[in-house]
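Sequence in, structure out. Go.
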Amino acid sequence: MTNILIPGGAGYIGSHCIRELQKAGYNCIVYDNFSEGHLKAVQGFEVVEGDLLDTGKLIETIKKYNISGVIHFAAFALVGVSMREPLEYYQNNITGTISLLEAMKQTGVKNIVFSSTCATYGENVSVPITEETLQNPCNPYGESKLAVEWLLECADTAYGIKSVSLRYFNAAGAETDGSIGEDHLLETHLIPLVLREALNVERKMFSTIDFESADSGHGYKNEKKLHVFGVDYPTPDGSCIRDYIHVLDLADAHVRALKYLEENGETTQLNLGTGIGVSVLEIINAAREVTGIDINYNIGDRRPGDPPELVASAEKAKKVLGWVPQRSNIKTIITDAWNWHKANPKGYDDR
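Output:
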């Protein structure tokens, strides 16, 4: 069986991906420092607790398990925090990846799939966004991811390490059986915040929460009600529009990207999205339908830096990987996420 190293495999997307890899016949070795990941999310998998900056431990792990490929999820990913702590983000995301590539170089591992982001494109973009759209990130998080994409290009030229960088749009949803889902220490994503509000109404479980979204025109603001940042954008209902992709569709793309590299594919970068935009208010209305709960929200002013619309073109991923999203209808996404949140109102409850 082929052994694959999964740095950051205990995180949200990584924990879903390892299950799809297992179904495809791969043996996954999760490598995680658990600063954000959850041990409960990787039960039944081989786990090595370690930091990406520990090159020696990475080399030791690669040799011990005879690793033949890497899928790299280990990164800090909060835009707002990256603005306050840029050195921390550059250190973890860029220096950490240098450490990983050094370990790969020293052990002869030649294939890596990289978890990148649409944040490399920045704010002032026309939709749909293609891979040829100018990359002009506007925060240290996006800059750090773009820098890694450049590093991977250099690693190919210098060391023959081939890579696929997958630029996600808005990941959402959960495993269909509700066994794992989305649980961040600081939640910034729209759908879990909306569903937390639904739980708040239904069960009265959550106290005052002070969350602020980094990238999707939503959040909590010192109160229990959901807070929508702006309904005066040039969009049909005035709220921001984003492209939501089911986490299981993302997982499928990673499996396909790994197989592509194993079949001697060249280094490339691919958008992962649906090409369909959904507004903040449409998400709230869809969640009302799925949950049967009247989800309340407050409307505030626009937040600086929120583009009106971010929607992907994923035609290149379809052409290169044969990838077509299967579960990314917005009601399917919300239904799967709701099943997880209802069954796990405190998430993994392991903090």
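Check: The first strand starts at residue 3 and ends at 7. The first helix runs from residue 12 to 23.
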